[in-house]
Each structure stands twice: as C-alpha cells, then as structure tokens.
Amino acid sequence: MRFWLPIVVVVSALFAPTTHAQWEPSGAITGLLAIEPTADERRLGGDLVVDLFERVGPASFGLAIGIGASTSDNEDVNRVFAPMGLSVGVGVAPRPVGFHVFLRGGLWAGATNEGLRAGGWAAFGARFEVRLDDAIALGVTFETWRLSGELARWMVLPGLSLVWRPVEDPPAADPADPAGPPIPVESETPSPSDELG
Asked: How many domains does the chain have?
C-alpha cells in the first residue's frame, strides 16, 4: 500500500471535484502488443492502459493505470502486472488529424515467482489520431517502457487507441441582450398626397 500512497495523494489534489465545477477529463483506452527485443528468448505480451487527463491548451496532465502480461518460452520470466502512474504530454487535437506525445512515470505491482512484488515504471509514447466525430478519435500508438525491480526489462509496444474528449458547449447568448441585435425598422414618412387628402 505504501507504494501507491504518493500517487493517490497527488491525483486527489489535482483532480478532486469541486462544488463549482465537475471534472470532465479527456482520455484514451489503448491496447498494446508488448515485445522485448533485447531478450535472449522469445518474449511477447499484451497490455491494456487507460489514461485520464486534463488538457490545458496543448499540454495534458493526468493519470494512467493498466494491466499487462508477459509470456516466454522460459516459464521463470512469465509475469502478470499492473502499472499505475502520472502522465504529462503535449499534442494537437485532431481536426481531422492530430498527435499526442507523452511521458508516464509511476510504479508497477504484480505476481512473480517470488510472490507479490513492485517496482518502477517509466514510459514514453506518441500517438497519431484521426477524428471520428466531435468527441471520439482513433489513434495509432507506439510506446517504449522501462520496468525496474523484480520485473526489470525494456519493452517496445505498438498498439491502437480509442480517444475521447469533452464536447465544448456552444457560446451562450449575452443575458443582457437575449434577443440579439436590434432589427432596423423603416419609418413611414407621409407622402404629399396623404397630407393634402
């Protein structure tokens, strides 16, 4: 529990809802194929990561949590683990295409041959996004991960993402002028014939 406490405290401070506004984060669900190119034997795996983040202009700040598994011909290195951490990134919203480059840092916890273990997790990634509608985009993602501790290894992870963002409300009408600009009305000037009649 002590491994997760600093992350929980920081996330609570950043994203706790207030009485004045409700947090509506952007986010992404990413499925990744995990490849370990430096391993002596074949090692493959898969990971599912959920990102929730707040956009501030082109920058983003948020939380990432996932679940992953690594398999190998060597049963001693098969693992199931869950990474969790904070993320920071920069990008351009898809109109109709965009990109997002990000860093993640945190911890992983999972089952090893020695029992439950934990370690450090660092990730760098980039995502190319194509807008499907005002709120949803499809992304092609490429990431590289570094895991430390009992599960120490490098991973290369290509994958696909489903990205969403809050739909911006249209600008509200000015309450001081709800009817909009005044419509000019032509004045009726009496003609000379009307005056004589």
From this structure: 1
Residues 121-153 have pLDDT tens digits of 999 999 999 999 989 999 999 999 999 987 788
The arithmetic mean of pLDDT across residues 54-67, rounded, is 94
Largest CA distance in the chain: 112
Q: What pLDDT digit, counting tens, does each position of 6-28 carry? A: 444 444 444 454 434 566 789 99
- Residue 90 domain boundaries: 5-16+24-167
Radius of gyration of the chain (CA): 27
* CA 126-128-132 angle, 5° bins: 140
The residue type of 26 is S
Token pair of 25, please? 């984060």
- The more confident residue out of 58 and 173 is 58
* Distance (Å) of CA 114 to CA 71, 150, 187: 17, 9, 92
Q: Is omega for the bond preceding 96 within 30 degrees of 0, making it cis?
A: yes
Question: CA 143, CA 181: separation in Å to the nearest integer?
Answer: 53
Q: For residue 196, is it within any domain?
A: no
The two tokens of residue 107 are 């911890």
Whole-Å CA distances, 155 to 77, 94, 116: 14, 28, 21
The answer as to whether 178 is a domain residue is: no
SS3 15: helix
- The CATH number given to whatever domain includes residue 151 is 2.40.160.20
